[in-house]
Design goal:
Blueprint: H1 5-27, H2 34-54, H3 59-70, H4 77-91, H5 107-129, H6 140-145, H7 147-165, H8 178-194, H9 204-255
Helix pairs in contact: 1-2, 1-3, 1-4, 2-4, 5-7, 5-8, 7-8
Length: about 260
């Protein structure tokens, strides 16, 4: 039997929402911009599926719409599509870079993406500046001029990771959202592999101190063992000397 007009309207809205979300995911698959570009489509699709599941309208029409659209056949296309989008969204950890109501990006995510764009702009600007260089593999200007921006970006990413593991950003997963992870991976590859830059280690002094202490431990151990064994040897020899002196006195008294 044909669907009721209200049910057809709900199904058509879900079909259009599914097509819009699928197109958005496909267009933003590389570089990955799923969460920041498709959260509006995903939120609307959730509402459209909820309208079908809750079955808006009077009780009889509501029951007919939910049953006819969701569970009337073995394939259950609408349910399958909804589960696919939910699993994709959760696998991307998009909730970890959105606000609680998913209406937009969180403040920390916007700050990260702003630094990410500044880093890419700095890379591009300095590459254009040394285009006349005869050695194209020399990226010293990029490393020098973009070091501050890249360091801030890297530090912020590490901070977001720590906060996320502690549940400060979200409790859904130990990973950040795929947009942030992919952006950081791209930047790190450019910085370390393409430009062959490196970050100065700010913990050099503590590392040297700890390393020196560890290397010095065997010397302390062997020295203390040597002194301890030498002192023990002296303690063992002392009674023998006392005993030999006592025997000499006895011999002198015997023959006197």
């Amino acid at each position: 039997p044909e669907l009721e007009p209200e049910c057809r309207s709900l199904l058509a809205a879900f079909a259009e929402g599914s097509a819009a979300l699928t197109g958005c995911l496909g267009r933003r698959a590389r570089p990955v911009r799923l969460c920041q570009g498709c959260h509006g489509h995903y939120r609307r699709l959730l509402a459209q599926y909820g309208s079908i599941a809750r079955a808006v309208g009077n009780s009889s029409e509501s029951h007919n719409c939910a049953k006819s659209i969701l569970t009337s056949d073995r394939l259950q296309i609408v349910v399958t599509l909804s589960e696919f989008f939910n699993e994709t969204w959760e696998a991307a950890n998009c909730a970890n870079c959105l606000k609680n109501n998913s209406e937009g990006l969180s403040n920390s995510t916007e700050e990260f993406l702003d630094l990410f764009n500044k880093s890419l702009t700095c890379f591009e600007h300095n590459l254009q500046g040394q285009a006349i260089d005869l050695s194209p593999n020399n990226y010293t200007e990029v490393c020098k001029n973009c070091n501050e921006t890249y360091t801030k970006l890297n530090d912020l990413y590490n901070h977001l990771q720590r906060m996320n593991r502690q549940g400060g950003e979200a409790e859904h997963s130990a990973h950040l959202c795929i947009d942030v992870e992919d952006a950081m991976n791209i930047t790190r590859k450019l910085w370390s592999r393409t430009f062959n830059c490196s970050l100065p280690c700010s913990d050099t002094v503590p590392v040297i101190a700890v390393s020196s202490f560890i290397l010095f431990l065997p010397i302390v151990f062997y020295l203390s063992s040597f002194l301890h064994s030498k002192q023990k040897k002296r303690i063992l020899i002392l009674p023998k000397r006392i005993q030999s002196n006592a025997s000499l006195v006895n011999i002198q008294e015997k023959y006197s």
